[in-house]
Backbone:
């Protein structure tokens, strides 16, 4: 398990600051973090601790001011914007707090969207794959529904299917259950965990919910731009999920 | 919804442009047709006679008196006629012998122009046969066709006798076989058509012709061709463009002003498309951010909006062409001559529609350039959070 090759994410000395000169303010003060294949980690911390900034950097939506960031062994510092876009499209899946589905399209079309973006034109295979994923998230009978006709929990499940359709190495989830009632939240969380177990996809989940964090393999705690704790959940013996 | 509104907007713009273009070209074609109904496209005349001093030295002071132009024949006109007929640009060649005379009937006496023609050839230059209001175009020996104005002045009808006489005393008595209306009062009062031979003997031009009328396939080439013929034959060649200079200038300035209007309509349509797309980029910020997070490149985002602009332009132009077509049908229904026939025939040419569709699509794409750039440069982090 500990071979260097199974490092999906590797951060070394990541710093991020905004502004310049006198008004420069550093948000992240040197982050070192490694996620291995199949890990299911929670990222917790108070508001303003830099969680979202860190997630954007890992998601290659933003560039660090300093430090190194490797995704699947590829050094993001060496890539131009097009290279980052390609790496993001191939290796990373996003689940947002707000599902951000495109309302004018059906569930199936929304799920197939990342493949369409990558391949440039629609084909039957991508819809077949989207259909299978919708089966897996329990929406077999909702494939042709327009995205805005689904309930909040259903929309978030579509979003998860969409994040997984490209078979990414790493799924980044920003408060994926933040907008859902407890019951739906549990369902969605179980779904993520299920994909993690079956396909060994690595997950990094930002959450405020200690109950959910406790059900992850690992909890990374960020305070004021620094990692202050990185440990298994306190109740690791309770393998909920 | 927005796209629908702007498609209607583009449609109205395109409709106005297509309608205006069709109306204008119909109007101009009609005006030209009327103008040329009694005129040849090019008229060839003998070269002007110039007074040449017998001696020209610096020592003698000369005062040249301009010479009056006699009625003369064109040299070798048969050869010239046959040669011109082989030119591909020329549709018809009609030699004629024309000169001044008087028409006398009873007490009435009118100054006229005797025009001796070969009816079949002449008819291909000026469609006289179609313009007859009575009788037929028959110009055998002793036969004449006159205009309705002259007929009224002389009180003559088909079958009546008419005497033509010239200033130097030649005269001939002819029978009226037809009355014409060429749509021009002057021509209707002045032109008297007789056979070429009759005119030649009346005007003392035995065997000769005084001018050659030409009809062309392409009206716009008249001036160019006239210059070429003048250069090759040494004759004076007057094109309809030159003889109607003011009229042609009026047509041109009409065309220019309509182009200016068209340009500004296109401009306002372009701004309309651009503003709708800018709003749509702002509204869809989140979706754009998500697509970017999924791995959509800036180029892909740009393409989406350029495509949208093009589609709006294209469908707008289809709608516009349909609108223009119905306007034109309505126009033809309403704008009628007193006798109930359409004032002039205008139609939407497929070429014009294709041009409008292509042009509007292009305008759509061009006006999408700026919004598309904006969409491409949207920061996904900001877009998703906002």
Residues:
């Amino acid at each position: 398990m500990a071979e260097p090759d199974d490092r999906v994410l590797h951060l070394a000395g990541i710093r991020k600051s905004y502004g310049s000169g006198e008004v420069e303010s550093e948000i992240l003060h040197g982050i070192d973090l490694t996620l291995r294949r199949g890990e299911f980690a929670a990222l917790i911390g108070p508001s303003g601790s830099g969680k979202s900034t860190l997630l954007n950097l890992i998601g290659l939506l933003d560039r660090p001011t300093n430090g190194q960031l490797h995704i699947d062994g590829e050094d993001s510092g060496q890539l131009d914007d097009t290279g980052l876009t390609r790496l993001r499209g191939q290796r990373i899946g996003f689940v947002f707090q707000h599902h951000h589905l495109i309302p004018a399209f059906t569930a199936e079309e929304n799920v197939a969207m990342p493949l369409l973006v990558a391949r440039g034109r629609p084909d039957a295979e991508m819809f077949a794959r989207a259909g299978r994923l919708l089966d897996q998230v329990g929406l077999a009978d909702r494939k042709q529904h327009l995205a805005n006709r689904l309930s909040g929990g259903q929309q978030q499940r579509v979003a998860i299917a969409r994040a997984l359709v490209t078979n990414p190495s790493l799924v980044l989830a920003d408060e994926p259950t933040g907008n859902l009632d407890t019951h739906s939240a549990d369902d969605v969380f179980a779904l993520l965990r299920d994909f993690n177990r079956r396909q060994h996809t690595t997950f990094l989940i930002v959450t405020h919910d200690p109950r959910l964090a406790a059900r992850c393999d690992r909890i990374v705690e960020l305070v004021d731009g620094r990692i202050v704790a990185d440990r298994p959940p306190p109740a690791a013996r309770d393998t909920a999920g | 919804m927005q796209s629908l509104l702007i498609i209607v907007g583009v449609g109205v713009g395109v409709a106005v442009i297509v309608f205006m273009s069709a109306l204008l070209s119909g109007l101009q074609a009609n005006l030209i047709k009327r103008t040329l109904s009694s005129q040849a496209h090019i008229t060839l005349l003998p070269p002007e006679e110039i007074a040449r001093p017998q001696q020209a030295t610096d020592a003698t002071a000369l005062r040249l008196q301009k010479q009056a132009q006699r009625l003369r024949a064109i040299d070798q006109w048969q050869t010239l006629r046959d040669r011109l007929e082989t030119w591909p640009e020329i549709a018809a060649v009609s030699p004629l012998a024309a000169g001044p005379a008087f028409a006398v009937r009873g007490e009435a006496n009118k100054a006229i122009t005797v025009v001796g023609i070969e009816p079949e050839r002449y008819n291909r230059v000026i469609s006289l046969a179609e313009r007859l209001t009575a009788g037929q175009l028959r110009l055998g020996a002793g036969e004449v066709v006159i205009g309705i104005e002259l007929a009224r002045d002389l009180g003559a009808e088909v079958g009546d006798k008419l005497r033509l006489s010239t200033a130097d005393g030649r005269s001939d008595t002819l029978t009226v076989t037809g009355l014409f209306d060429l749509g021009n009062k002057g021509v209707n009062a002045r032109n008297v058509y007789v056979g070429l031979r009759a005119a030649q003997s009346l005007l003392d031009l035995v065997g000769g012709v005084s001018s050659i009328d030409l009809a062309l396939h392409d009206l716009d080439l008249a001036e160019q061709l006239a210059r070429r013929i003048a250069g090759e034959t040494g004759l004076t060649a007057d094109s309809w463009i030159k003889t109607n200079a003011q009229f042609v200038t009026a047509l041109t300035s009409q065309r220019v002003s309509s182009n200016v209007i068209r340009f500004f309509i296109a401009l306002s349509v372009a701004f309309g498309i651009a503003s709708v797309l800018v709003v749509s980029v702002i509204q869809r910020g989140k979706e754009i951010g998500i697509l970017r997070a999924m791995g959509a490149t800036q180029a892909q985002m740009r393409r989406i909006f350029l495509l949208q602009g093009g589609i709006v332009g294209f469908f707008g132009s289809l709608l516009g062409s349909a609108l223009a077509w119905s306007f034109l049908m309505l126009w033809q229904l309403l704008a009628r001559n007193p006798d109930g026939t359409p004032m002039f025939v205008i139609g939407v040419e497929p070429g014009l529609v294709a041009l409008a569709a292509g042009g509007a699509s292009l305008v759509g794409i061009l006006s999408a350039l700026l919004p598309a750039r904006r969409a491409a440069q949207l920061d996904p982090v900001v877009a998703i959070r906002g």
Observations:
- Chain B has a mean pLDDT of 85.
